[in-house]
Amino acid sequence: MTSGWGLRIGEIVLGLVVLGLGLFIVVETSMLEVGPANAAIGPRMFPFLVSFGLLAVGVAVLWQALFGHIAHEHGFELDWLAVVLVSAGLLAQMFLVESLGWIIATTLLFVAATLAFRERRVLISIAIGLFLACLTFWIFNYGLGLSLPVGTTIEELLPGSDEEAE
After folding, report:
1. What is the C-alpha separation between 96 and 136, in angstroms, rounded?
2. What is the reported pLDDT for 166?
3. How far apart are CA 30 and CA 27, in angstroms?
4. Rounded to an integer, what distance in angstroms lies between the CA atom of residue 112 and that of residue 92?
5. 48-76: buried (b, 16+ CB within 10 Å) or exposed (e) per residue?
6. Pairwise pLDDT comparison (119 vs 154), residue with the higher score
7. CA distance 5 to 63
8. pTM for the complete prediction?
9. At 68, is the pLDDT very low, low, confident or very high (cuts 50, 70, 90)?
């Protein structure tokens, strides 16, 4: 069992790490060179939003650690199965997104996350994950003009531009 002071130190460290990450993202994003065409809303907007969110969470955690109550007075148990499933899903997406593409890799990540939350209806999780992955793929590729990877394996199965030219 951890003492109250030990838990406060842990929360203080967590708050400082989140604040540090937020500050790091602010500094790195502000040094990003952006062309004049992207001055209003451009590639800096999303990182700044994330960094300000991290800064707000870091301040809130620090405030609670220093002046508030302890979140888990008797310590807490970490759900290792959930940590392993989400980590495996993230690693799978990272390693499979180039070969299998955004849609399949993201669907696998979604299913791993639902399994971490103890969802038993795997087919429904696959269907929802597939829908969300297709939706984000469509929004990024066709709505925003950006390109998420189709996947080298999938591209080999699709008819190529050489066959279309004939």
Report:
1. 17
2. 47
3. 5
4. 10
5. eeebeebbebbeebbebbeeeebeeeeee
6. 119
7. 15
8. 0.59
9. confident
